[in-house]
Amino acid sequence: MMTIVAQAQGEAFSAVRSAIRSGSSRAVAQYFAGTVELEFDGDRQSFSATQAEFVLKDFFAKNGPASFELVHQGSSTSGGVQYAVGKFGAKSGTYRVFIKMKPAEGGAMQIDQMHFTHE
To answer: How many domains does the chain have?
Structure first.
């Protein structure tokens, strides 16, 4: 049972991990929910998916990606919420990244929150 859950979590975050690693805001935005909460070093705001894509594009332009690895993944016991914590290596330093995904009506996982905290 645990293997199936871990495999499903891995699939949900695989494409997002690759998109962040390459610094592609467009690829990340494909997984955004209609409204997305973005936080950069404590500055937290909610954006439409389109606005969030532009905000993330600006972040990647200022913090060129060098690497991104997930260090922890998990899920809630109810509601199907999945989360991951990763390390984003940028030319400007290292960021701790928190990503929360929720299931959409069709069952696909969508990014609800992304938080970047400079370490």
So the answer is: 1
By the 10 Å C-beta count (0-12 exposed, 13-18 middle, 19+ buried), 82 is classed as buried
**Domain residues for 11?**
2-118
Task: Give the pLDDT band of residue 2 (cuts 50, 70, 90).
Answer: very low
Q: What's the CATH code of the domain at 103?
A: 3.10.450.50
Q: 49, 51, 54, 56: which is closest to 35 by C-alpha?
A: 49
Return the closest-CA partner of residue 81 out of 29, 1, 13, 3. 13
Amino acid at 107: G
Helix (H) or strand (E) holding 7: helix 2-22
Q: Which residue has the higher pLDDT, 105 or 44?
A: 44
pLDDT of amino acid 38: 98
- Cα(110)–Cα(105) distance, rounded to whole angstroms? 10
Is the pLDDT reported for residue 98 higher than 80? yes
The model's pTM: 0.87
